[in-house]
Amino acid sequence: MTHPPAPPPPAGWYPGDHPGTERWWDGTRWSDAVRPATSPGAAVPAPVERIRWAGVWWGGRGGSGLYLAFGIVFVLLALPPLAFALGADEAWRAAFMLAFSLVLLVGAAALFTNAHFCRVIERRHPTSDAPPPHR
């Protein structure tokens, strides 16, 4: 299976041709804009990459492992109310606990989906210290 080429680095200020300077990359090409570096040798923080799917922006900071862990926690938190709902004597208590556990499970599904898109982004950019685009 062939993967599409990685997208170019996002627009931003990157280390310039001369020490102590930064040059603007507009997302497709280098501009003529140059400025003094914010601090000599300092790395420019990379903007957060996001993926739009089903009308929602996914991805972000934290990494896939964090979202996966919180998704697992949400599933585990949903189990006791679900068990209580199945054994409840009164219908309103069972309905309330069932609704509560469903809310937690929907939250877990959203966290797992975000973990997936974070993983997609991590595969596009294997390291956060990716070099700036070629000039």
UniProtKB/TrEMBL annotation:
Keyword Transmembrane part of the UniProt annotation: yes
Keywords carried by this UniProt record: Membrane, Transmembrane, Transmembrane helix
Domain of life: Bacteria
TM region(s), chain numbering: 66-88, 94-115
Alphabetized InterPro entries for the sequence: DUF2510
Keyword Transmembrane: yes
Pfam families: DUF2510
DUF2510 domain mapped to chain residues: 11-42
Name recorded for this polypeptide: DUF2510 domain-containing protein
